[in-house]
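ok so dumb question maybe but i'm new to this and my supervisor (M.) told me to 'just get the structure for DUF2975 domain-containing protein' and walked off. so i did the thing. is this what she meant?? sequence i used:
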Amino acid sequence: MNKLLKIFRYAGFSLIFIALVTMVDHLISAVSNYNAGALSIDLVENNTAQQVKTIGDAKFTSSHLGTYQFKPTLMQSVILSDNGGDGVGANAAFYLVIGSVIVFIAYNRPKWLENLSENRLWQFVGAGAILFFALKFLCFFLIKKYVEDLTGDAFKYQRAGAENINLGVISLVAILSIIYELLSYSRKLKQENDLTI
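this is what came out, is it supposed to look like this??
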């Protein structure tokens, strides 16, 4: 149990640290864009006739994708820099929530781990996955609406997709280590219970 709690604590603090580093890195980028007086985001033009070109047997459809550059306020820079709310914001919020819950359980409710069954563990993993995708969808929807309001509905938000893969991999390792240790622990408890019966 001590090894499990130690891994739990380290993984929780790692996720919180990753969330904070992600947010600080994003804020530095946003302030840099604000000080430069220019922010560029990729958008798609609304209500335009699509141009289709036929090249042999293939068809090419123009999507009217372009770069929208403007002088942002500090808040706009924070929201829109580097897929701010959509990419960084959703990931940082997820890491922060999961990390905080893990640290809370490790320090305040370690007894909860003693009675954890394998089925309950997979329910928690499913709830975590639902939380992750709900945050991603919510942030994307809010940024999309914000951009449409900002541009007077002339453009739609187009997700660029470039996120920091290194921090994503590190956080995935932290989460998978917790799942593995909890799974091993719940199986060990089940075996001990079967032996006592």
